Amino acid sequence: MHNTAVVKRIIMVISLIAAVAAVFFFLVRPYRETTARHTHERIDSYLNNDLSYEEASYDQYIYDLTQLIELPYITDYDKGHIYERMAQIHKFKGDTISFYHTLGNALYYLNKSEDTSIAVNIYLDIANYYLNDCNIEQAELYTNKAIETCPLEDIKDEQVKSYAYRMQAIMMIQDGNIEEAEKMIDISSSILLSHTDALWYESYNSINDMVYATIAYKKGNFDEADAILEEYKDSGLFSSPIYADIVTRDFVLPYYNVACKLAAENDNEDKLIEYLSEYKTASDKFGFIKQEQKLLIEITEGGYNLSDKTNSLITDRILSNYKNIVETQSNDYAALITEPLEAGIDEQAELNAALEAERHNNKLRLLDIVIALTTMLIIIAIVSHSLKDPLTGVGNRRKMNYSILPGIISSRKVSFIMMDIDNFKRVNDTYGHDKGDVVLKRLGVLLKLMHNHKNKAFRYGGEEFVMIVYDSDPSMALRIAENIRRDFQWQKWDFMDGVTISLGVATGRLSKDTLVEADNNLYYSKKHGKNAVTYTVDGIQKIVSSSID
Predict the structure, then answer these.
(1) DSSP E strands: which ranges in 361-446?
(2) Which among 85, 192, 357, 411 would be 20 to 30 A from 259, CA to CA?
(3) Model confidence pLDDT, tens digit, residues 271-284
């Protein structure tokens, strides 16, 4: 009797489980699937609308997108797509921090979705950003991330697939692999041929043709490159308001890049100056100043037969751009250290709170990781800041002192270059401390350009700077010192005629004794006419180079 009762209870439990499963399968599951489909259709309809992107509509778009994220049974793909669109709105608003912050949210969901096309597109856009910022290493990193997310041949979205092959071609051009670049852009263009009715076909085809023009120029086929440009000289893309920043980046600037070089090649300086002006207008509008700088440098180093007047114009623009780039990087650095770090902490806290209800244990582990990483980033940021001179960006005196410590146990020979800006007090007194800071920053830029694993620059204090040259041959340090002296003397200023620098060089152990010797040689330069480099030869201080040489 007891056994029979037990069996009945087991059967009842099994029946109840089966009934619940049946209700779920026949009622709840269809409801979820239907709701998920409606959610997707609603999101897809909104995102595929031809949005105006007028400034007055930005906040409304962000509100609408935020509401869409809250829809029930939303997929990772749709949520990532919404965040990606929201990031674009932040970009149009000029909110760079929110743009990259939201883009990261998009990648989080898109990398988990079945269709990774949009994730690939985002990685390619980030690579393109770094490419236009002349950071080839980071551009290659994010191009590789795109391929790791989804191999080129497996990308489902044909538009993204064409874009991916085009980016491969552009990166290969950067590496000088022109033949492989041509194969990649051919694949990209062949994909476009299957979508001639698509809204994006015309712009993508035009952008691809700019890659072809670049390849033609690189191969020395100037007539072919010129013919491609001639076909697009009246293109509406030059004034298109739709995705104007992207069109400028991918079409307008490449067009004028090739046009400038062809004009220089043909000794047509009037056209060169005209195209450089058009390039500057386009690059200034969307902050592509480094691309302009790269073009100007390529022209100066291209061996073109240009007049002194044109060369002078280009040189002046290069120097002006250097100043703007330094100021922009200083502002960007400050923003990127503070606001995103705090936003990242808040975001992780909110994310952990949301996950706690479903996966409590995972939340705790994630929180530990976030706290550890955040603490490490804060420590790194504090240490990095404490060892860097905030005005010039080179190492500070504390960092220099740390750099000397290994000399206690090492007999390795190095050279110290001590330098001091001549008559700097007069600059401050005459033009103001703000202009004095401009002079200090400019010297910082010159020293950072020479900074590598063998040369380390520091601000010693005031207008005094130090460079440690990790080479036992003193001739290396003397060449560097002379380059610094000459380059600083040749700098152009918009508020004064010029300023010079005195330097002292000493070779010996990595120690304060060698530093003191370099300092003594610096003051020898100061006492004997300034704007000179002094070195100790056979125990005697000698001026080895100066403006008189």
Answers:
(1) 413-421
(2) 192
(3) 999 999 999 998 88
